[in-house]
Amino acid sequence: MAKDIGIDLGTANVLINVKGKGIVLNEPSVVAIDTKTGKVLAVGTEAYRMVGRTPGNIRSIRPLKDGVIADFDITEAMLEYFINKLDVKGVLSKPNILICAPTNITSIEQKAIIQAAEKSGGRKVYLEFEPKVAAVGAGLDIFQPQGNMVIDIGGGTADVAVLSMGEIVTSRSLRLAGDRMDAAIVAYVKNKHKLLIGEHTAEKIKIEIGAVYDADPEETIEVRGRDIATGLPREVEVTAAEVEEALHETMLAIVGAAKEVLEQTPPELSADIIDRGIMLTGGGALLKGISQLFASELKVPVLLADAPLDAVALGTGTLLDNIAHHKQY
Question: Which residues bind ATP (predicted)?
Answer without folding.
Answer: 11-13, 155-157, 203-206, 283-286
